[in-house]
Design a protein that fits this description.
Distance between the termini: 5 Å
Strand order of the largest sheet: 2-3-1-4-5
Number of strands: 5
Largest sheet: 5 strands, parallel
Bound molecules: BIS(adenosine)-5'-tetraphosphate
Radius of gyration: 16 Å
């Protein structure tokens, strides 16, 4: 069973949902940069104050801030882990490679959750989080296409990428993921 994984996909593709299921079933650490940043906002920390408006506009938080959060949280983990929402651009992917080299925990598998854009918009509008209004969703999707999508090729070239059809019910998607984990 592979132990060091990451989920790639557009906002609303089901990364958070599937990463949580998989981490619970395998007792892996689920490291969602979005969740960790939202916690900082909730607790009104200095970091939270810095990122609140950026996140509400649907833009990406600076690479350095997110890298610090990832480093702090990965260090605590001797078990398997699932990264969800990180990396989101090529610079973050390079930083992640460096960090993982240092701690000698190479990435073993990348799941790319593939889904049509109309389905994403409907899902996010239904969820109704603070950054789930139509204008912000359009910004997030534009940033995703421009900066995150190139990571599909990046991980394909490293032979780590697995396609998952994410336009279906939760169980079918998670069975497909489990099959590919083996
Ligand atoms: P995230 O928290 O990562 O949010 P997201 O991309 O919108 O995806 P999410 O994981 O929430 O959606 P999911 O598919 O699980 O990021 C939020 C913000 O944080 C970013 O915009 C950015 O500002 C900042 N940030 C985070 N990481 C960063 C980084 N690395 N660098 C810089 N900034 C960063 O689920 C969506 C909905 O669909 C849910 O309601 C779910 O219940 C539903 N759903 C899931 N699967 C379904 C299915 N199969 N059928 C029907 N509904 C389903």
């Amino acid at each position: 069973m592979k132990k060091h994984l990451l989920f790639l996909g557009a906002p609303g593709a089901g990364k958070g949902t599937q990463a949580e299921l998989l981490s619970k079933n395998n007792s892996y650490l689920h490291l969602s940069t979005g969740e960790l940043l939202r916690k900082e906002i909730e607790m009104n920390t200095n970091l939270g104050k810095q990122v609140k408006d950026i996140m509400n506009r649907g833009e990406l938080v600076s690479d350095n801030l997110v890298l610090e959060i990832v480093k702090q949280n990965l260090d605590k983990s001797n078990k398997g882990w699932i990264l969800d929402g990180y990396p989101r651009n090529l610079s973050q992917a390079n930083s992640l490679d460096e960090v993982l080299n240092k701690i000698n925990q190479p990435l073993e598998l990348v799941f790319y959750l593939d889904i049509p854009e109309e389905v994403l918009i409907q899902r996010l509008l239904l969820r109704g989080r603070k950054d789930d209004n139509e204008e912000t969703i359009r910004t997030r999707l534009k940033i995703y296409r421009e900066t995150t999508e190139p990571l599909i090729e990046y991980y394909k070239d490293l032979s780590l990428l697995h396609y998952i059809n994410a336009d279906g019910d939760l169980k079918t998607i998670s069975s497909d993921i489990n099959r590919k984990m083996a």
